[in-house]
Amino acid sequence: MLLGALAFSGSCTTNKEAVPASKRAIVEEEFIFDYQLTRDCHASSLIELENGDLLCTWFGGTRESHPDVQIWTSRKPVGGVWSEPTPVAKAEEDLGGSVFNPVIVQCGGDTLQLFYLSPDINDGRVMTSYDGGQSWGPSSALDKEFTGPLVNKPLYLADGTILAGGSMEGGPGWRIHVERSTDMGKTWTRTPVLNDPKAFKLIQPTFLAHADGRIQLLARSGGKTPDTKIAQCWSEDGGVTWSEVTNTSLPNNNSAVDAVTLQDGRHLLVYNHSTREDETCGRKGRGILTVAETTDGVNWNAAAVLEYRTGAVQYSYPAMIQTRDGLVHITYSWHRKRIKHVVIDPSKLVTAPIVDGVWPKEELEWVVSPDSIAVNGAVDTEVLK
């Protein structure tokens, strides 16, 4: 439901029936579950299976890091609806702790790996499915300093190499690395740490594959100042070695981002176009969720506004894929109450240049999200107060 397009200054358009440029490419919006499954849910990840079904995973429970948090999955068959969410993993009883940040990796055919963190934020675990995620085997701990893909999907190269963006928190600081498999996930190697955490506090990498063979890594920055940017580095040898870390021109609010290279060669990035201290963009700058487009990874265009609200609200931790039919699917945490699913037709994107990191508000409208936030059939005032 749209309430009409609003310029960022707050002035209303006169034609509330017109679809604003920033919403024109959206062809579907829905929740994966229409009720509050758990008090808190977060960090979804999405894949398209061999048969065309969508499979989504996330963690949910009383709150992040609580012992009752579980890893959940839901499946959407082609032409169907999302299945009832199913818990597939929780913290091992003998280890305690909690579970975090699940990501599914495709290893050929119906073989999948589900990576997640447990019992702590730096402890990687993995479990395997041989039937397309219908059932899962027992979990096992990863070797120390391996996390598997963290928050974001891996990148699958043409030669069969899989690149997973890993990161570690705690001392000596937030730091990223890349994990690499050349045998469809049977074994993994990892790069050294790619950033100096004193200069760049980085976690949760995502990747873009450029036509010239270079790979661009984009990462969440831990900065909280108005000049904090999404960080980047580049590889020219299939992810074996990486350039020094630099800033992009795009702001970051110390929250997760995700990216995808489209079939036509363009690249999309979904992120909160805000900073941590931006009071006009919800809680922690997470009240705005946007999509930007680029052809070279350097010059970016505003392409879509998925959500925008002020107040104590948040839209965060997006995941994005392109399916074989060309459509782009995005899931994200909707006020950490539900997981929302949005479908975009990339051929319908209306773009305008982002100059010096500033969203072109006059050319691509901000769209205010609905006032009423219904959970379990009633307005949930907790996310609005």
CATH architecture field = 6 Propeller
Share of helical residues: under 10%
The CATH class name reads Mainly Beta
Shape annotation: globular
Count of domains: 1
Structure class:
mainly beta
Uncertain runs: 1-16, 375-379, 381-385
Strand content: 35-45%
Helix segment count?
0
- How do the strands of the widest beta sheet line up side by side? 19-20-21-22-26
Spatial gap, N to C terminus: 21 Å
What's the number of extended β-strand segments?
29
Largest sheet: 5 strands, antiparallel
Radius of gyration: 20 Å
* Element string (H = helix, E = strand): EEEEEEEEEEEEEEEEEEEEEEEEEEEEE
CATH topology: Neuraminidase
Overall pLDDT: 91
Question: Notable features of this structure?
Answer:
disordered N terminus; 385 residues; mainly beta; five-stranded antiparallel sheet; disordered C terminus
Characterization of the model:
This protein is mostly beta strands and 385 residues long. The protein has a single domain (22-351), classed as Neuraminidase, CATH 2.120.10. The chain contains no helices and 29 strands. The strands form 8 sheets. A 5-stranded antiparallel β-sheet has the order 19-20-21-22-26, with no helix packed on it. Strands 2-25-24-23 form a 4-stranded antiparallel β-sheet, with no helix packed on it. The protein is globular, with a radius of gyration of 20 Å.
